[in-house]
Each structure stands twice: as structure tokens, then as C-alpha cells.
Amino acid sequence: MSARSNILNKLRAGLAGTTPRPDDFDEGLVTTPWQYAAEDRITRLRTLMEAVHTEVHQVTSAQWPAKVQELLESRGLGNLLYAPGTGHGRQLAVHWQRSCAKVQLMVYDRPIEEWKDELFWKVDASITGTVGGIAATGSLVLWPDRHEPRLMSLLPPLHIALLKASKVEDNLYGMMQKHNWSAGLPTNLLLVSGPSKTADIEQVLAYGAHGPKELVVLILEDA
Amino acid sequence: MSQRIPIKELTDSFRGRAVGALADDQLRTNFRVAMDSLMKKRADAFPDEDEREGLRELGNHIKARALSRLPDLLEQLEAKLTDNGVKVHWAETTEEANRIVHSIIEAKKGAQVVKGKSMVSEEMEMNDYLAERNIECLESDMGEYIVQLDGEKPSHIIMPAIHKNRFQVSKLFHDKLGVEETEDVNELIQIGRRTLRQKFLEADVGVSGVNFAIAETGTLLLVENEGNGRMSTTAPPVHIAVTGIEKVVENLRDVVPLLSLLTRSALGQPITTYVNMISGPRKADELDGPEEVHLVLLDNGRSGAFADAQLRQTLNCIRCGACMNHCPVYTRVGGHTYGEVYPGPIGKIITPHMVGLHKVPDHPSASSLCGACGEVCPVKIPIPEMLQRLRQENVKSPAEQPKVKDGGAKYSRKERAIWRFWARLNTSPVFYRLFLWGATRLRKLAPKNVGPWTENHSAPVPARRSLHDLAKAHLNQGDR
Ligand code: SF4
Question: Which 291-350 residues of chain B touch chain A by CB within 8 A?
């Protein structure tokens, strides 16, 4: 007999004569304490993210590329990984051309195997979009795809994330329901709530464990 | 402290290791400081008692519901994952699980493995198994890395290196990595980052654990703060997740309360930095992520606990570590004293099912039953009740057919006879009076040495007059 059937048989024997417990999931418990007025939602997200060393800026949909340029130049960084196939990527490229920005733009356009070394050690910063944010926990929702692969938000020491103010939900449950996640998830869905950190030595908090040392969130006001 | 028992002879036992740990001031300070801080963080993360209790109740119901349909959910999970392109494997024993992992690595001719934090892989002693087969298996969680570098085992399920302070880590890095000593924690972490990043780059296979496996969507959910979990599950061409069969939950929405309970109970965080939800390998048009994803479902005694409706509750555990953070015994003796993968209260109730009571005969009794663990457990496992049950199973005679692996490990005819005598003494008035009469008159003959009790206390001596006697005299006086 296979391990599979042995395990399942044992479990079934243990349940003999019982009925499954009813599904009494009470969504009020995960929504009611985590609801915010429209004007508080962004403040809450901001406060929580800043508490864990995230840099947050509120900018307009027109201005943000200039903000990105400023962030990179003030840090003296040499390059930025971006996704030219996305709307925000195109907007960034246009700005870069117009302003003759010096920071070199890089593109994640081939399988990781072809440029692992470079991606691991040579990329200074990356910019990605997000599909939304969660006010209750101060989290970004990332939905990696071909244009913005999984490692794009993990390897560069600085990660800049764009978040549309209108895409911030009160809580994780609301986010899941609204976008019907259970009907189809990407290969890798991520909630990101700050730069990488650890408290493994004496519980002293240190940022930049394995992922980005810095996370900058640009909240885009739609006006 | 015991002078009569040489410590060395006892280090194979919980008691012996406890004696050593209690005498180690540095260790005790490290744990005391850490546990105090973790307790405070948890308390701060649950400012509203009603909210907390409502959520714990819900967490308990979700896990109980999942367990009440466990075999069906495991099959559903397998079917969904298979649809998503993940290969599912089943293992009854750790040996089997290791063989599966090894064969996957071998098929890829892999020589280097990086591991995100996984307690199940510790259960399997995967590192040793692979090392014997010339495969390097490197821990990548900072705490686990430190512990591995020093040839140790984790002392806490969430904070593996909690028993060490910065000076000890600095010395370790200096000795093993040849770097300058530094007392700056940030600098120490950066040393770890640089060393491990190269390993992530080179690794052929990444191994991780799983926090929740979602049957509805075929998703493996992992929580972490460092990013090493994301690295291990994303950068190498193959990802192998190993997990216990009890980790499956029914619906995606079920993880919402569980996630909140887990991160708040464990570290006092509203959420971890990363929540990593993996639903499949790299798709044809994607540019990164592993080409192969495997899930190994391990039993290792869990189905034994499952067989008994009361003990089944042990499998509610979401491995938050809160029970150990709040345990007065754990805080004093530290994680290594337990001598097994899972320390503290959860270790005491789960380990017997994995390794048998013969191997951990003192586990059920190494508790004052103060109840703190049960009170903080986010999924409401009645840990003290489990301990009491295990104590009973631990002293059952073979004829009583103990229900736990190697039950009856502490069964002793002599002890049984003494208890029978004691019960008889206290249930028969004639016998009781006779004994009292003798004990008060022969009090000088009471033994001076009554085992472990007299190591720290003076020997009990019967009173000259019994309470019965005194009460009678008192009442007679009142009558007059
Ligand atoms: S038994 Fe409860 S408190 Fe202890 S680790 Fe498991 S879930 Fe946490």
C-alpha cells in the first residue's frame, strides 16, 4: 500500500461515525474591527508602513516619475529596473527621455537564468506597480507577471512601489472578496508590508535582511 | 540544586539538561529578556480583549472544521495543486520524506540546497540526511543560519537563535567566516546577507516549509520577515515545500483570521513583511520562479494523534510559539532542554506522537499546569488538558492499552501498588483512623530522605495530633 492510501485510511478510520463540522465563518470578526472612513484609509496605511521603515510619498499621477528620479539621484544610484510593457513603465520612460535623467534604465526581459549574476548583485533599484493596498495591516498587494516578475520586487536593495490611492481596501478579507481571488490566483501573489527585516539577533530589529533594504511607496492621487 | 546526581550522567534526559540549563546564568538571562519582550509585544498587538477572544474562537473553529474533513481536504488540495502544476508526494515517516526530497534533488543533479525556515525539515533532520549524500543544505533564515553555523539546533520555533547574544554571534562569525568581530547587530546581519545571497544565486534547489495549505485554490502560503523564504521559493530552479498533513485549511478566506492570529501571537506584528502565496511553478510566459514545485506531505505520527478525538486538537497548532513565550518552565530551562525539535508546551504535546513516550518520558510532566499556554494559544488548544491526558497515557499498564505511541513508558507496578494503597487508606474510615493513630505516635520514625523532595525541602513529619483530633477537641470546648 502506498503512503498516500495508508495516511488517508488512517485518517478516515479516525473520523468514522463523525460528521464534518459546519462552516460557521463569521466575516464580521475579520471586517468590523478593520473598517475606516475614506479619509482615514490612506493615513492608516501610511502610519503602519512608516512604523516599519517604509518611506511613503503622496504624489499626483502626473508627477510621480519626477519623484522617482529625485529619489534615485538623491541616493546617488546608478540604475533602475523597470517594466516598459506596462502603462507606468511607459510613463516613466517618457519622463526619463524628456528630463535626460542619468540613471540607467534596465529591463527584466529575459529568463532569470540568463542574467542571474547581474540581477543579484548589480541592480540598484526597481520600480513596480501594485494591484492595491490594505489599510488594516499596512500592506501592498503584488501580482507578479511577465512584465514585473517575482524577483523584481525582492532582489534590488531599493524597491519603489506605485500604489493608486483608489485601490486601497480596508482589510485583507475585503480585498479578497472584491477581486474574487478564490476564482484564480497568479503563480505567486505577495503581500508586502515593509522592507525586509529580521530580529533574529537579540530581537534587535535590523532592516535589509535578504530582500530590499529600503521600500518606497508612491501613493498616486487620481486627480 | 541536586548534589547527589552527577549532571553528566543525566544529560540524556530532560531532567539532566534542565539542571545544566538552570545553572547557566547567561542562557537564563537571554531567555528571560526575550520572552518578556515577546509577551509584551503580543499583549500590545491585542489591545481589545473581545476582538482577540472572538478571533481565537474563530481560529479554533476553522482548524476544527478542517480536521473534521482532513482526508477530503488533503485530496482536494492534491487535486488542485496537481492542476496548478505542482507535484504532490506523501510520506508516512521522516525517512520516506527524506528519500523523496533526495530523489527530486538527484534527478536534477543538484548539489546545493538553500532552505527557508521549516520546522518539518528539522523533524526530518534533512540537513544531515542530505549531507551524508554529499548535498550541501544551507539554512537561510538568519537565526537558523547562525544556529547551523555553530552546529546547534534551534531553541525556539520562531526565533531559532534566541539563546545567543550579539557577542556570541560576533565571535561565531569571526571564527567561521573570518570576518572582523563587531557588536553592531546591523553589521552582523549584513554579513549574513552577503554570504547567503551568493548561496541563493548558486542553489539548485530551494526547500521551504508551509504555514497554510489552501485546498480551495491549491495554494501554499508562507509568512516571513526576512525575504529568505521568497528567495528560497523563487530563485532556484526547483522548489520543494515540506509540510505536515495538518496544515491544510478549506478555503482561502480561512487564512484571513489565522494569519492575523499567527503574526500577532508570534511576534506582535499586525502582519509579517512578506506573505508569500504560491500557486504553481513558472508559467511558459513568465521569466522567473521555479520550473518545478513539489509538496511533500508528512505524517510522522500526526495520524496517531488524529485517531483520538481529544488528542486530535493538538493538530490545531499553527506554530506561533506563543505557548513557549508564556511558559514559565520554557523560559527557565530554554529550548534545548527539551532535546527534540519542538520545545515548550507545544513540544510537550506533539513530540510524544512523533517519537513515542519512551523517548520523551518526562515531557508530559515537565509542566506546572499553570495554564498560561492554553490561555494564549490562538487556536485554543487546551494544552494543560492534553498534558494531563498524556500523563495518564504515560503510566498505563500494557493491559490498559495506552492510546499514544509507546504509552505506558512510565508505568511502574510499585507506583501503582502505592497508589492503590493510598486510595484504600483514604476510602476506608477504619483503615484511615488506624493509620492516623500510628502516624501521630510513630512520627519520630518518619523517613528523613524522601527522594527528590528532600533535595530542596525539609522532610515532612506527621504532626503530634491529627487535624481530626484537634477539631474534635475544639468542638467539645465550644459545647461547654
Ligand atoms: S500550541 Fe498554540 S500557542 Fe503553541 S505554537 Fe501551537 S498555536 Fe501557538
Answer: 297, 299, 303, 306-309, 312
